[in-house]
Design brief:
Elements lengths: L1 H29 L6 H19 L8 H22 L3 H27 L8 E6 L10 H13 L3 E6 L3 E2 L4 E8 L2 E8 L3 E4 L8 H9 L12 H5 L13 E3 L2 H10 L2 E6 L9 E5 L4 E5 L2 E5 L1 H14 L5 E5 L11 E9 L5 E10 L18 H8 L4 H22 L6 E8 L5 E7 L8 H18 L16
Parallel strand pairs: 1-2, 1-6
Antiparallel strand pairs: 3-4, 4-5, 7-12, 8-9, 8-12, 9-10, 10-11, 13-14, 13-15, 15-16
Helix pairs in contact: 1-2, 1-4, 2-3, 3-4, 5-12, 10-11
């Protein structure tokens, strides 16, 4: 009975999302804006594929009317893809208006009727890492904020890793917080999983879990990958030009154009292994954190070659150095921390400056940043114009994060966007991080994290691979 309820909730969410997406596609086509049609159509088809697969499984019994509607949808979606390949957007609009939307709405009405009588349940949220107990990775403030907020929402937190999962019995040897302490317990699978690892090379067991239980977080690539995905979009100009370092010749090309550049690991974190390279007429200077070293051209070439060959897995990227300094000469950037809330919408959790110690290029908390309120900071730096900069940064943050979410099938739950403001007052994006840490109001973060997890559980939202291709649909 519970599984039937989950399936029906999942179908309702797929159908609601599809109706919204198709309405929006109609509007985009009317406006002549075809760029966003493909990712929205991809999301619709991925949802249909999930629905179609479940309905045709042996475990799901449906009446003849629903079966007929599903087959009509498949036929019309195939026609839609054919029109898309031919660039016939007006025919797509007509298909949506006359066939797809009415069919989706009829199906939605039928499944809404089915679930109206189901009682409210107490949701179990799994906090998961594939290889390590999450309690060993997360701060106590973060994990306990999740526990207390879940209790307030009449839900439960269960902590576990892959080794705790028994697929045959569908149970987990998880940890729960009871009577003031953590206790190991044998529990059924959770209703939703908050995952704290975003690797593309997932184990077979993790992929199997993702097929059975909704996950909150999905990877979108490293610091170098995302800007490449945004090339050609209206947001491309915010991103600092970058190049992957494969050979010394790569950095030679950069040195011809820029006197100052930054070297940093593509998959780096916590401000580690970041170098500022400064070319002068006499030598090349390297600054790491606040330690400066002068090298000859040959010494610099040896240093770069060692960096390349030392660990091929730790690939570096090159960027021109953006001088973003306070009036007192301290390096800084501004972090915007954005989350999905209990309605599945993105909202600003907080925005704050990260200010380096004097002489350091690093503005990371772990490297000893100075902290101050964002409004106060911007007003101090841009006398009389601080509030305008704050508004601009907020708007860019929300628009950019919404676009990133859209091109990844609306599967992104949390982002940290790092901004710089250069000497000409141009706003740049240093990088976009997933699972952002650093300074944050953990209780406020937990409110959104728990609410969003419950939202996914209630609606049984299973996100497909955000990097999936439209051409693989409906096979």
């Amino acid at each position: 009975m519970e599984q039937q309820f989950k399936t029906e909730k999942k179908f309702v969410n797929i159908l609601e999302t599809s109706v919204e997406a198709l309405d929006y596609i109609k509007r985009l086509i009317n406006e002549g804006n075809y760029t966003e049609v493909i990712p929205l159509l991809q999301t619709t088809i991925e949802g249909f594929n999930a629905l179609y697969k479940e309905i045709h499984s042996n475990n799901h019994v449906i009446d003849e009317k629903i079966f007929k509607l599903i087959n009509q949808l498949k036929e019309n979606l195939i026609n839609t893809i054919e029109y898309l390949n031919k660039g016939k957007y007006q025919q797509i609009r007509e298909l949506i208006h006359s066939y797809l939307l009415p069919t989706y709405k009829e199906l939605l009405s039928k499944y809404e009727d089915m679930i109206q009588q189901n009682p409210k349940k107490r949701w179990v949220i799994g906090v998961y890492h594939p290889t390590t107990n999450p309690r060993a990775l997360l701060t106590e403030a973060r994990i306990m904020s999740l526990v207390y907020e879940a209790e307030r929402k009449e839900a439960d937190i269960m902590v576990f890793s892959t080794e705790d999962v028994d697929f045959n019995q569908e149970i987990v040897q998880g940890e729960v917080f009871q009577s003031g302490q953590w206790e190991k317990m044998t529990l059924s699978f959770p209703d939703v999983i908050q995952n704290y690892s975003l690797k593309h090379d997932q184990s077979d067991k993790e992929r199997k879990l993702r097929g059975l239980i909704p996950f909150t977080s999905f990877p979108f690539g490293g610091k170098y990958v995302l800007p490449k995905k945004l090339e050609g979009s209206i947001y491309q100009h915010y991103f600092i030009p970058s190049k992957t370092l494969y050979h010394y010749s790569d950095i030679e090309e950069f040195l011809k154009e820029y006197n100052q550049m930054v070297l940093k690991p593509i998959h780096g974190k916590k401000g580690q292994n970041i170098y500022l390279v400064n070319r002068t007429s006499e030598n090349i200077q390297i600054l790491k954190h606040n330690k400066r070293e002068k090298l000859s051209s040959q010494q610099f070439e040896n240093f770069i070659n060692k960096l390349i060959t030392e660990d091929n897995r730790k690939r570096y990227m090159i960027q021109p150095f953006i001088k973003s300094q306070t009036n007192e000469g301290r390096a800084y950037h501004i972090r915007a921390h954005i989350q999905k809330n209990g309605d599945g919408n993105l909202e600003m959790l907080m925005m704050y400056p990260r200010i380096a110690k004097k002489g350091s290029i690093l503005t990371n908390v772990d490297q000893g940043e100075l902290q101050i309120d964002i409004s106060t900071f911007l007003e101090e730096q841009f006398k009389g114009r601080g509030s305008q900069f704050e508004t601009d940064l907020y708007n860019i943050s929300m628009e950019l994060s919404s676009y990133i979410d859209m091109i990844h099938g609306f599967a992104i739950d949390e982002l940290g966007i790092d901004f710089a403001i250069d000497e000409n007052e141009k706003v740049w994006v240093y990088e976009v991080n997933q699972l952002p840490g650093a300074r944050v109001d953990e209780y406020k973060r937990a409110k959104n994290a728990v609410a969003y997890a419950i939202y996914l559980a209630e609606k049984q939202i299973f996100f497909a691979d955000p990097l999936g291709k439209l051409n693989n649909a409906l096979q």
